[in-house]
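Hi U.,

Before I forget, here's the chain from the pilot set. I'm dumping it here mostly so it's searchable later in email.
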Amino acid sequence: MLIPLLALAAFASTAAPDRVLVRLLANSCHPTLNGRSVTLRQLEVAAHGWRRTRPAVRFQPDRQSSFGCVDTVLAIFKRQRVARLDVIGAKAAPDARR
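Structure:
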């Protein structure tokens, strides 16, 4: 099986932003990269390109995301040596009591 190299190259060769937002939606293991849905493989290719540019990567998993999916994305960041990573937690409901 061949992965379309042009599709993967598009993520690796885009202009380097200062900040990147990776979101993981509820009940899905398909992250979004700056609002664009990507596969885990495309995320890994993009993260490989961040080694040179070192953007601030903000990772925001939904509170309903499975631990396995969150762990997979964090493993990609670790494997690709993402240097600047912020993990953003879900906001509490307005009526939640502490």
